[in-house]
């Protein structure tokens, strides 16, 4: 069972916590994590791209020249794809790129990402993130004190609007609730910072 130090907002160690092997100590599955990341990015695509085919561009009603006897190749319309201002071949149209993954695959990917952060030493457990006002400076000082990387994911144990909005002002920092974390955000962050209460909630759900 992996152990990890718990630090306060000044970076001082205030104890240790045992992490559940079933969540933070499994062998990371790189293939499943890749599947989860590709799925997340595909689901984020708007799919609003749209260009015009030869049937949709304006003009081209008249045949440019007669069929035979000109020495030119035969042409039926000036809006064919090979012409300037012509339509696009196999034009992209609005579509839905989203698809779903098996629940077990999503779960394994999430646990693999969490275990990988612990194994590589890129996870920090914070005793609490106490915020009683909107103060970005307080969060910045905390991140510097605990040695967070340029990109940090801060997982909160409760919905604290002061913390959420203060974190949102920091470039590279992102906050999430226990029930909204995903594999992509964990992998994309240099440092995973979890409030102690969030670790306990996560173990209640997944252990």
How would you portray this structure in words?
The protein is an alpha/beta fold and 207 residues long. Helix content is 35%, strand content 14%. It is built from 7 helices and 6 strands. Strands 2-1-3-6-4-5 form a 6-stranded mixed beta sheet. The longest helix is centred in the middle third of the chain and has 17 residues, at 103-119. The protein is elongated.
**Coarse morphology:** elongated
Average pLDDT, all residues: 92
Tell me the distance between the termini.
13 Å
Topology pattern, helix = H, strand = E: EEHHHEHEHEHEH
What kind of oligomer do you see?
single chain
Largest sheet: 6 strands, mixed
Sheet/helix structural class = alpha/beta
Quantity of strands, as a count? 6
Q: Rounded to an integer, what's the Rg over CA atoms?
A: 27 Å
Task: Please estimate the helix content.
Answer: 25-40%
Measured by DSSP, the beta-strand proportion falls in 5-15%
Number of helices: 7
In which order are the strands of the major sheet placed? 2-1-3-6-4-5
Keywords, separated by commas or semicolons:
207 residues, alpha/beta, six-stranded mixed beta sheet, 6 strands, 14% strand, elongated
Detail the topology: elements first, then pairings.
Blueprint: E1 3-7, E2 13-18, H1 21-24, H2 30-44, H3 103-119, E3 123-126, H4 136-146, E4 152-156, H5 161-168, E5 173-177, H6 183-188, E6 191-195, H7 196-206
Helix pairs in contact: 2-3, 4-5
């Amino acid at each position: 069972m992996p152990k990890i130090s718990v630090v306060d907002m000044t970076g001082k160690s205030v104890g240790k916590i045992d992490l559940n092997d079933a969540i933070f100590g499994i062998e990371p599955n790189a293939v499943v994590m890749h599947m989860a990341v590709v799925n997340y990015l595909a689901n984020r695509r708007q799919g609003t791209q749209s260009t015009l085919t030869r049937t949709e561009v304006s003009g081209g009603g008249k045949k440019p020249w007669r069929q035979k006897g000109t020495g030119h190749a035969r042409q039926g319309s000036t809006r064919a794809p090979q012409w300037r201002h012509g339509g696009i071949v196999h034009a992209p149209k609005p579509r839905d790129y989203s698809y779903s993954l098996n629940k077990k695959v999503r779960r394994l990917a999430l646990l693999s990402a969490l275990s990988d952060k612990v194994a590589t030493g890129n996870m920090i457990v914070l005793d609490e993130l106490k915020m009683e006002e909107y103060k970005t400076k307080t969060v910045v000082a905390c991140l510097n004190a605990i040695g967070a990387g340029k990109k940090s994911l801060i997982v909160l144990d409760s919905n604290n609007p002061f913390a959420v909005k203060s974190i949102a002002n920091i470039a590279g920092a992102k906050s999430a609730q226990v029930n909204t974390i995903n594999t992509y955000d964990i992998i994309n962050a240099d440092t995973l910072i979890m409030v102690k209460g969030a670790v306990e909630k996560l173990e209640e759900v997944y252990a």
